[in-house]
Design brief:
- The chain has 498 residues and is an alpha/beta fold.
- Helices cover 48% and strands 13% of the residues.
- It folds into 2 domains: 8-223, no CATH class; 264-430, no CATH class.
- α1 (8-39) packs antiparallel against α3 (74-80) and α1 packs parallel to α4 (84-112).
- Residues 7-245 form the Inner membrane protein YejM N-terminal domain.
């Protein structure tokens, strides 16, 4: 076949190739705009280097994926079917499908914390169905309008690039932009290699944010060139969960807390039937959904009373008041001796009562929940609590824990946020959007990030599952997030000066 410049086929293919590059540049801009959703879906970096890495990775990775999509679809079509009018229409259609899929993936990631995958298909379908059924007209109009707008932008970009191709060829923008993108791509991977080798978690925790993101890792690359201290790397990378539990050490002096005169009553029922009978007799209680609590009852009570994961649960600690209550004697306990906790008599700002009978119970400022069924084979379970209308705790679809509830009560109802932060490990449900959390029960590390729950056994085996649906997720372990969770869990194992 004659492919000289004078050949008509070659000329058309060359023009289409040049047009395709400018069409791709236009799509890179649109993809960058849409992919900002991923950047705001998780917690933001805490250091300038983390922000810099996030920005250059966002620019380079999304551009690379967009260019690859062009090479795999539009480019071969231009070679085998070099008819400009048809190619421009097909390219607009293909780009619309791809960018619509990106929008869908961004929505799923923002809502659930993971990208579209076959294993999570039931949860993704459930999310889409609930979104559609909650506002069918608005959702349909929005989705349809979005696809039409994307298609319109693609047709405009496609036709504009073709009609002004000669003028665009004379612009130097493409060379400068390409150099910037290549530099960002190389720099982002180089920074990630350094961060992985030095356990710089503000960077490595961003590994799975963008779709199809598989950054180069440091272990094999640097070890091959004898630049990596393998022993130190393994010590930092493979944090051990075996052995004794953490010894609680306060990192700061407990602040003075002048609690108000309001009394909060926690009613702990031994089973859900008791709780339901109590709730049915009340009209002033509202449900607090999606509470993750350990099936192990002592661990669950330790979460509630001490505001800490059971990683710190020890007989020595249970013999004393919870650390957050030691200075101000804020809590009273009644009926918990059978679970290894010390009863504390008297009137206090917070009273926790293990309910034996439904008679003579407090009637105001109530938070009521039941312990899990001990016969359950699960490690954790999802339950509900019921709160009085006078207690303001924000309810949301995200998961929350018992230590979050007591943390919120001390912070908000008793006006002691500094005390809660100094002696408890939880989040204020009134101010913090609960995207992730950590717990510990029966020697198993429990972490959750949006809908994904990860259970890591002491022997290093693990499983991941959907919190709302319960199905297993066949995904690789998110090591950066796991290490971040372990460090949060161990917040009180060493003094601030060590």
């Amino acid at each position: 076949m004659n492919l000289t410049p004078d050949n008509q086929f070659s000329s058309k293919a060359s023009q289409l190739l040049s047009w395709g590059h400018w069409f791709t540049f236009a799509n890179i801009g649109l993809v960058l705009l849409i992919s900002t959703i991923y950047l705001f879906a998780d917690s933001q970096p805490g250091t300038p280097l983390g922000w810099f890495y996030m920005l250059i990775t966002w620019v380079s990775h999304t551009s690379f994926i967009t260019f690859c999509a062009f090479v795999l679809t539009i480019f071969p079509l231009s070679l085998v079917f070099p008819y400009p009018r048809h190619i421009r229409g097909m390219a607009a259609g293909i780009a619309t499908i791809g960018i619509s899929a990106l929008c869908l993936d961004a929505f799923v990631y923002y809502s659930l914390g993971y990208h579209i995958n076959i294993q999570a298909l039931p949860e993704i379908i459930s999310l889409l169905w609930s979104t559609l059924t909650s506002s069918p007209a608005i959702t349909t109009v929005f989705a349809g309008s979005l696809i039409i707008i994307i298609l319109g932008l693609e047709l405009i970009a496609s036709n504009h690039a073709w009609r002004h191709l000669d003028r665009l060829k004379n612009l130097k923008f493409a060379r400068y932009a390409t150099s910037i993108l290549v530099t960002c791509f190389a720099l982002s991977h180089s920074i990630h290699i350094w961060a992985d080798a030095n356990n710089y978690f503000d960077i490595t925790k961003q590994d799975n944010v963008l779709p199809l993101s598989y950054p180069t890792t440091a272990k094999t690359l640097l070890a091959r060139h004898d630049l990596l201290d393998i022993e130190k790397y393994q010590q930092e990378r493979n944090l051990q969960l075996e052995g004794p539990k953490g010894r609680f050490i306060l990192n700061t002096t407990l602040p003075n807390c002048e609690a108000n005169n309001q009394v909060i009553n926690f009613l702990v029922f031994k089973n859900s039937d008791q709780l339901n009978n109590f709730v049915n007799e009340r009209s002033d209680l509202s449900a607090l959904d999606n509470i993750l609590q350990p099936v192990n009852r002592q661990d669950a009570l330790f979460n509630l009373i001490y505001g800490l994961p059971a990683y710190y649960n020890s007989e020595k600690l249970r013999e004393a008041l919870p650390p957050w209550a030691q200075k101000n004697a804020l809590v009273g306990l009644s009926g918990f001796t059978g679970f290894g906790f010390k009863d504390i008599k008297g009137e206090h700002s917070i009273n926790m009562i293990l309910v034996d009978k439904l008679e003579h119970l407090p009637s105001e400022n109530i938070i009521a929940f039941s312990l899990a069924d001990e016969t359950s084979k699960e490690l954790i379970t999802t339950s509900k609590a019921y709160i009085s209308n006078t207690i303001l705790i924000k309810n949301s679809d995200s998961f929350k824990q018992l230590n979050d509830i007591i943390y919120s009560i001390v912070s908000e109802q008793l006006n002691c946020p500094a005390l809660a932060d100094a002696a408890m490990l939880g989040k204020n449900l009134n101010t913090d959007y609960q995207q992730e959390g950590v717990n510990y029960s029966n020697g198993v590390l429990v972490t959750f990030k949006k809908d994904r729950i990860t259970l890591v056994n002491p022997d290093g085996s693990y499983k991941q599952m959907s919190g709302s649906e319960g199905f297993l997720l066949e995904q690789s372990l998110d090591i950066p997030f796991l290490i971040h969770s372990i460090k949060e869990l161990q917040k009180f194992t060493r003094s601030s000066g060590s």
